[in-house]
Structures are given as structure tokens and as C-alpha cells.
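Run log, item B.
One chain of 82 residues. Sequence copied directly from the ordering sheet:
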Amino acid sequence: MTTVDVSRFRRLLLFRRRGHPLQILRVLEDFDGWYYVVNLAGTPDFGPYLHAEIVDAFDVEQAPCATRDLTPTVGGNAAPSD
């Protein structure tokens, strides 16, 4: 499995698949607002994508069901925001 340099990204977003609420798509958002699919890291399909492309191509709900900031906070730890 390919590792991803998370310092390039602002947030981790979790999207539920439409019609399959137990299936989650993990997506990284970079500082410019582009989206990258975690499971496709190391492949040409990793990204970048626009939000609408993620929703349509992967059949997920419009809004993420959870988010996590990946940028360091004052204490040095990224806190979950879900």
C-alpha cells in the first residue's frame, strides 16, 4: 500500500455511499480545495478531483458524514471535528 504525505492536505473527509450507508469513501482535501481518494493513492486515479466529481463518480452523499483537520493545532495534535 502506498503511503500519503498528509502534510500536503488540510482535511480528511468521510463520505457515505448513497444506498450503502455502511460504505465510506475516505477523501483528502488539499489546501487549494482539491480532493484525493485515499484508496487510490499511488495510482493515476488518486486525484485531483472537484467536489462534484467525487459525488458523481463515487456515488456518495453531497456532504461528508465526518471530517478531521490534518493541520497541526497549537498543542501539536490534529483534533477530530466529527
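Observations after the first pass:
- Helices lie at 51-58.
- The longest helix spans residues 51-58.
Flagged for discussion on Thursday.
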